[in-house]
Amino acid sequence: MDDRTRGADPADGPVAREKEALVGRKAELERLFRMVNVVNGASTTERVLVLRGDAGMGKSALLDSAMRWARVSGVRVLRAEGSESEASLAFSGLHQLLRPVAAAVDGLPERQRTALAGALGTGPAAEGAPDLMLIGVALLSLLSESADPQLLMLVIDDAQWIDRASLDALAFAVKRLEAEPVTLLIGVRTGDPLPALDRHWPALTLAPLDAAAAGRLLDHQPQSPTGRVRDQVIEQAAGNPLALVELARAAATSPGSSPTGPLPLTGELDRIFATRLAELPAPTGQLLLLLAAMDTADSEALAAVGLPGAEDTAWRPALQAGLVRSTGGAAHFAHPLMRSAVYHAASPDARRAAHLALADLLGDAPDRRAWHRAAAAPGPDAGVAAALEQTADRARRRGGHAAAAQALQRAADLAPDRAESARLLVEAAAAAVFTGDITWVDELAAAARERTDDATLLATAAVQSGRLAALTTGHTVVFSRLTRAARQWTATDPDAALDLIAGAAVVRFYSGEDTQRQEIDRVLAQLPQDEPSAWLRAWVRAVSDPADGRAELVSLLPQLLADAEGTPERLTTLAIMAWLLDETSLAVSAFDTAFDGWRAHGPLPQGLGGAAAWAYVEYGRWKQAREACAQITASASALGLDHAVACATAVDACVLAFQGEAARARSRAAEALALIDPLESRSVAVYVRRALGAAAGAEGAYETAYGQLRLAFTAVGDPVHYHASWPALAELAAAAVRSGHRDEASSIVERAARRLGDGASPRRSALISRARALLADPEEAERHFRAALADPALERRPFEHAQTLLDHAEWLRRRRRITEARPLLTTALETFQCLGARPWVERAQAESRAAGLDVAASTTPDALAELSPQQRQIIGLAARGLTNREIGERLFLSPRTVGSHLYRSFPKLGITARSQLRDLVEGTPLVATAGRQE
Asked: In angstroms, what CA-CA distances link 40 with 37, 65, 67, 183?
C-alpha cells in the first residue's frame, strides 16, 4: 500500500518508524493516529483531544508526528503555536492558524467576512462593539469550507500562550462542527488553564517515562551514558524526555562533571543550555537573542524584522548545537526552554537592546512595537504607556478584551504619575470584566486602590468588580460583598452605590433568599430619590420583589420604556423588569427593539439575561427562545460563567420538555443542575424541576411529574423561589389530579392565593384559577375555568392559554356539553401544532376525536414530529428559501451541519428534493411556525 494515499496504515512506512523513535509514547501516539482516522471517517465521536504535560514531556513531538501522519493520509493541517509575547495580541493565534486559508475569507458572506477580517486586522474594525458571535460563525463557516473537499485537522501547540480572543472563537466554532470532517489537537502545559476550551473535552496527560523507557531513550543517544553517570541522569531527569536527552548530552561533553545536586530540573537545563550558548560565535549568539526576544512562531514576523533565513551560515553553529531547527526556511527554537535559556542568559542591558532593535524594525506593526518598547523600558515612561493604551484601544475594538486589559495593566506599571496609573488600572479592570476572570478584575481594582484616593475612580473600580461578581455562582458571598460596597458609597457616590445594589438585586433573584430583600430595601432607603436614577430604582424594586407595589411599577413602565428609546442596554434592562411584572407583551416588544440596535447581549451576558428567553417562551416564540439560550450559552461559556450557562440551559430544557423531547430535556436539565448549588441558586433549581416535571408529564409519568414539581415549593407549601415557582402552580395541579395528590396540591394552591392577596398579576390570578379548576369538585370547577380565561390579554401567552382551553374542554365534554367543547379544542389544537408541542397535540387530538371532530392526522405531521426541534427549525427556514449558509448563520451551525440535518430529514419526510419543502411546510403549522418565529 502506498503510505502517501488517504487511508494508509499507520503501522506501515515512515510513521511506524516514528513510533519507535518516540520512546515510551506508543499508546499516546496511537491515540493521536486514531484522531487522524476520525477525520477519515472512523466511527468514533472523539474529535477533540487536549494533550497535557510538563515542559519537555514530548507534547510537541507527538503533535508533529500526528501532523506528519495526517498529511501522509491526505488530511489538510492548519497549525498555530503559542508564544508568550503574542498572548497579549488579540486574535494573533487565529491569524497564524488561518494564514494558509486566508484567501478563503473573501468567499464568506459579507457580514461574516467583515467581522472576521476586522478581528484578524486584515480589514477595518467594526463600528461599536465587535460581534464576537458573528466572528465565531465566520470561523465556523471558514473551517467548514476548508474541510471541503480536503479533510481538516487543527493543531494548537503551546496553547497556554495563545491569546484569549482566539481561544474563545475557536471554542465557539469547534463545538458546532458536529457534521464536519474536522478534528482538533491541543497541546498545553500541565497546570495552565485554557478558559472555555478544554473543560469538557477529553484530555491525555503525558506521564513521566518509566525507568525502562528512560533507559531505551538513553540508548538512542549518540553517546549514551553508562554506569553511575547513567543512573544519575535517569534520577535527575525524573522521566522527562527532554531532560534525559540534554543531561545525556551534557554528561558526554563534560565527562568529569555529572549533573548532581538539588537544582530543579528546569534550572539544571538552563545551566546546560547556557553552557552550550557560551561556546557559540558572537554573531550567532546575537541572532539567538533577537529570536528569543521576538518570541514568535510567526515566520512572516521573523522576516519583517530582517532575521536571516535558516540557510544563513550564521545559524549553522546553533543548528549543530541543537538549539534551533529549520522550519519553512526560518529558524525556530527547538524547544521553549531553549528560548528561555537564551533570553535569561543575556544581561538586562543586552535584552533591552534587543527589544529596542526589534521595536525600531517593527514600525508597521504598532502593537508589537509598543510591547517591545515596554520590554525595553528600564523604568516609568509616559510615551510607552501612551502607546500601550493605544494598543489596548485597538484590541478592544477588535474584541480582544484580555489583550486590552494586559496592555492597560502594563501601561499602568509604566505611567510616571500615580493618578494616571490608577486610571489605567481601572480601565484595565473594565476590560478584564469581559474575560470572566473575577480574580484578575479584583487584583486590578485592588492595585488601583493602592495608588489613588480619588473617590470617583475607586467607585468605578468597585462597580466593575461587582458587575462580574453578580454573574458568578457564590451568591451568598457575592451578595454580602455587593451590599457592603454599596453602603460604603451611599454618601460619596450614590450612583455607584445604586449600580452596586442593582447587582445585588440580580444576585437576590438568582438565589431567591428572602432575607436579602430587606437588605436591599435598607440600602435603597439611604440613597437620594433623584429623577435620573428613578428608572434603576424601579428596576431594583421589581427584581427584588415584583409583587410588592406591582401596580405602581407597571404604571411607570410605558414612560420608562419611552425614555429608554435609542439606548439598547437600558431598554433590555427595562424589558427584564416588564417580564418580571408579567407584562410579557411589553417585554417582548422591548427585547425586539433592543436587540435590533444591540448585537445580542454584548460580550458579557446581561444580568438576568435569561429573561429574554423566558419572555419568548411565554409569548409562544419558542424558536427565538432557544436561539437566545444558545447566544447566552456561547458567550457565558467562553467567559467561564457557569451560572449564566445554567440559566440558559434550564430554559432550553423546559422548551424541549414542552415539545415532547423528554430525554433531551432531562439531559439538559442535568447539565444545568450540575453547574449550580440548588441551595445557592433557587431560581435555576426551580426551572430545572419544571423541565423535569414537564418531561415526565409528556411521557405520562404523572407521579414522577408531581414529585419534581412539588420540589418547586417548600415542605409547608411556600414557593421555593418568589418568582420562578409561581408558573409551576397549574402544572403541579395538573399532575396532582392524575397521580392522587389532589389534597396536598389544593393546600399549596390556596396557600399561594392567600400569599398573593389582591396584588396578583392577571397572569398569576389565571394560573391560580386554572389550578383551582383542575383540583375542584366537578360542580365548582367551571367558575374557576371561566376566571382563568376571562382576560383576553392572556391569549398572548398561547401555551398557557391553550392548556387552559384544553382542560376546560375536557371538563365540558365529560359533562356532555360537546358543542361548547369543540371550539375550545379546535383553538387549543391549532395552538399546540403551531408551537410544536407534540404531547399536547396528541392529547388535544385524542380529546377532539372523542368530541366528534375530524382530526385524522396525515402521515406527514407524524413524520415531522419525529424530527428534533433543531431539524424542524432547519426545515422551516429551508422551506422559506434560505441557503444552508444563511441557516447556519442564524442557528450557529456550519453549512455542512445544516446540510447533514436536511439529508437525514428528507427520508423521514418522504421527499427527495429541497423544492418539495415549501408545499410540505405550508400545510403543516408544526414546521411553518418553527421557520417563522422571528
From this structure: 5, 17, 14, 10
